[in-house]
């Protein structure tokens, strides 16, 4: 700004706070007229802390080493006037808003919107890992809001690129709109150990496309059957957010392993230790099978949680461990017990129902049902995998699992998820009735065929002597 000693910028920036504390530093520069060189003048900084009571504290050093402090609830705006460090450099007025948006429990992340200029390094993304969990991540890029406009009309033709591991996909281009609607879905194979989803938003141009914002999203901790609908702030730009719907689904483990699979149902816990000062915990279970990891949903304020969630792993003989954690959005996740689930001695396709005491803590048990499943042998699998009988059997299993999930959803009081799952359950019931009708039709056709074959066999047989004929008639009558 060239407005003398009292410039007004009114510039908005999105930045990310990747921990519960952080520092914003502002560097002031001066440019003399008709010069391209910027001379450093001074700097100031604002510190922030996300508190245990869900409040945010901002503070800075004022004149004569006094402390300037402001408190706000998450999402509330504060205004601060902070003096620059060098004497006679004046003051900087900033407005700050902290919004929680990140849904990865093990990597809390907060969006800080403030009126000033600064910069921030992108979130670290781990190196690409080759192991895939066997689950599918479905991501719907729904819409954008307040994207940076690159043409004089104030509009932008924008598209989004997504990279997950070594695979990348992009959306169609939404023409001439800073609030585009894509409503486009892409799928990725889930990668183990916390691989980040890298997002880049571009403004399409005739000569070269320009980056109008980036973001990294932690996909760890996604629960099957639950969709996450989030607004993601774009970094390194003045404004812009993307709305995404993210969900994960499991593939059939039998298709990826010819030797069978391990099925574990994490039913409930009882008498867990209290990890919070209020005398309760927010427990979830991390299921680890060798290098493969999955986790249950978080149940809040309880020492006797009921998860009722089932997980599958291709059977490779790895140790099966359960790690019970206390969820905490502000502090590091605390461990409230571990146990090892023994399954190697189980008979094939027989379920073991057991309560297992937790180790490393004074009390607590976990209720699990474990089955070492094996596919049917070829000589016994005369029924086609695509037959109505097989499909009806699979649907029955799906319906049983959904009923368990519905019980937990009813306990949580989540009406939106309940409506969705009831609709899906009704669809499965309709499909099952259709396959049962097909089975009845096939049964009638099979009986008619047997009668026809029997009649043909009887007609083609040579006529027996009279005495034998009488005996044969009696046998057929008995039949």
Using brief descriptors, characterize the structure shown.
alpha+beta; C2_domain_sf; coiled coil; 4-stranded antiparallel beta sheet; C2 domain-containing protein; Immunoglobulin-like; disordered C terminus; 479 residues; C2_dom; single chain
What's this model, at a glance?
By secondary structure, the protein is of the alpha+beta class. It has helices spanning 388-412, 415-460, 466-478, and strands spanning 12-17, 21-31, 38-50, 55-61, 67-73, 77-83, 91-100, 110-115, 132-145, 158-164, 167-170, 181-191, 196-203, 210-218, 228-233, 241-250, 261-270, 283-289, 292-295, 306-314, 320-326, 334-341, 351-357, 365-373.
CATH top level of the domain at 132-250? Mainly Beta
What's the story with the biggest beta sheet? 4 strands, antiparallel
Strand arrangement, major sheet: 1-8-7-6
State the shape: extended
Q: Which superfamily, in CATH terms, is the homologous superfamily of the domain at 132-250?
A: C2 domain
Protein name: C2 domain-containing protein
InterPro entries: C2_dom, C2_domain_sf
Organism: Kalanchoe fedtschenkoi (Lavender scallops)
Region (Disordered): 108-127, 457-479
């Amino acid at each position: 700004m060239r407005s003398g000693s009292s410039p007004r910028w009114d510039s908005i920036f999105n930045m990310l706070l990747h921990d519960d504390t952080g520092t914003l530093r502002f560097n002031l520069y001066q440019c003399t007229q008709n010069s391209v060189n910027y001379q450093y003048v001074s700097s100031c900084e604002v510190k922030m802390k996300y508190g245990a009571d869900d409040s945010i504290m901002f503070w800075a050093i004022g004149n004569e080493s006094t402390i300037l402090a402001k408190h706000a609830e998450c999402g509330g705006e504060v205004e601060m006037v902070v003096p620059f460090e060098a004497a006679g450099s004046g003051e900087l007025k900033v407005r700050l808003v902290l919004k929680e948006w990140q849904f990865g429990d093990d990597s809390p992340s907060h969006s800080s919107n403030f009126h000033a200029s600064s910069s921030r390094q992108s979130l670290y993304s781990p190196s690409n890992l080759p192991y895939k969990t066997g689950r599918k991540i479905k991501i719907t890029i729904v819409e954008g809001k307040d994207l940076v406009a690159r043409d004089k009309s104030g509009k932008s033709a924008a598209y989004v690129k997504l990279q997950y591991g070594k695979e990348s996909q992009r959306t169609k281009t939404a023409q001439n709109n800073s609030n585009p609607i894509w409503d486009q879905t892409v799928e990725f194979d889930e990668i183990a150990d916390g691989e980040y989803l890298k997002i880049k938003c571009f403004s399409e141009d005739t000569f070269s496309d320009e980056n109008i914002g980036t973001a990294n999203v932690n996909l760890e901790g996604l629960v099957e059957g639950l969709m996450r609908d989030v607004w993601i702030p774009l970094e390194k730009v003045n404004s812009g957010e993307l709305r995404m719907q993210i969900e994960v689904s499991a593939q059939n483990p039998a298709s990826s392993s010819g030797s069978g699979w391990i099925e574990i149902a994490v039913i409930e816990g009882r008498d867990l230790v209290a990890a919070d000062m209020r005398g309760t915990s927010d427990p979830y279970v991390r299921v680890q099978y060798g290098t493969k990891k999955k986790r249950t949903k978080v149940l809040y304020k309880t020492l006797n949680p009921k998860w009722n969630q089932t997980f599958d792993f291709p059977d490779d003989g790895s140790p099966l461990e359960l790690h019970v954690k206390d969820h905490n959005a502000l502090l590091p996740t605390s461990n409230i017990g571990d146990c090892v689930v023994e399954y190697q001695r189980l008979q094939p396709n027989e379920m073991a129902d057991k309560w297992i005491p937790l180790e490393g803590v004074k009390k607590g048990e976990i209720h699990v049902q474990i089955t070492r499943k094996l596919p049917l042998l070829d000589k016994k699998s005369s029924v086609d995998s695509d037959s109505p009988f097989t499909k009806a059997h699979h649907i029955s299993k799906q319906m049983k699992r959904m009923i368990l999930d519905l019980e937990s959803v009813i306990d949580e009081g989540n009406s939106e998820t309940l409506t969705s799952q009831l609709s899906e359950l009704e669809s499965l019931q309709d499909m099952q009735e259709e396959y049962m009708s097909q089975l009845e039709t096939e049964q009638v056709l099979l009986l008619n065929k047997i009668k026809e074959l029997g009649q043909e066999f009887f007609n083609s047989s040579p006529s027996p002597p009279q005495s034998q004929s009488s005996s044969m008639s009696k046998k057929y009558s008995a039949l």
